[in-house]
Write the structure tokens for this entry.
Amino acid sequence: METININLPQNGYNVFVGNGIFNQLIKMVKSHGLNKNLFFVIDKNVHSLYSTQIDLIFSNYKGKVNLIKIEASEKLKSFKTMEKIYANLLENDYSRDTLLIAIGGGIVGDICGFVAATFSRGIQSVQIPTTLLSAVDSSVGGKTGVNFGNTKNIIGAFNQPNFVLIDVNFLKSLNREELLSGLGEVIKYAYLTNIEFHNYIKNNFGKVFNKNPKILLKIINETVRFKGDVVISDEKETGNRKMLNLGHTFAHAFEVESKFKLKHGQAVIIGIASAIFLSFKIGLITKSKMDELLELIYLFKDEINVGKINYDNAISIMQRDKKNKDGKIKFVLLKDVGSILLDVEANRDDIVYALENGIGVFK
């Protein structure tokens, strides 16, 4: 088991990464001195697949414990789902001395993080991601929230968990589409980090689809360490943490415009392609550098079915992005692997060019 410390000035925490470590959950709760009143929020599909392991935790626990199962979808990443959790907490007499434990993908983690930030003005929480997407990205960093008014994650809060437990055993049940969605964020880190990791992903992404635990552990450890360092340097996303949004300004628009038929990671891959084309169009990179940067993206061109995207609608959605300032869309763009530019503006024609060509890769 690897331990990665997210050494924030306040509210620092550990991320534990391993294979078959879920059974150490209660031991970790006790060793961290966390609240004994446990409230689990679990993706109902995860519970159906891993009920034996999860129920074993319940049967062996001596303190107060309750469980609620929720359906995880972007359409239900909403106040309605939060209200269901709040109501269950109150019905079972939970208060500020609660430890909320989220078991599921990024949707469950984001909702629970926001509930933990707001219930009784703040309660303790633990994140246990069960998808590759949430393991490599959303479970770490403290960004929480729900969707509202056709805008992703527009209502939320920064709220760090007390620890994160990543057990790659949960990833064994993921289908190819879910693994591809996780690879979307992994590919993002391949562009953000360095050429060594970039090439490692190019050479080994197929082993992710084979659920090779050694490969999964290396990828998760590398991405979490990198993201942890970025979060430590800029917890509230006022500076270089913005780099973690590479491809996301486009991606969120693709998700909403497709009515969430595109999974987040798939949309991120298309979004990174669009960002590379935009980087070329406004003169940040040469044609040869664009072609070089697109090599990794082209490995996935037959994996994603984009469907029809209305460019006017997509741009309108991008204009509502919470990272914008003064009504102008702000992009994260590339000069090279590991060389990132923040808050770049572009005119409408250039954005349309990027949309057309980014989406065109997958047609």
Summary: The chain has two domains: 2-173, 176-210+246-360. The first helix runs from residue 25 to 31. The CA atoms of residues 43 and 104 lie 5 Å apart.
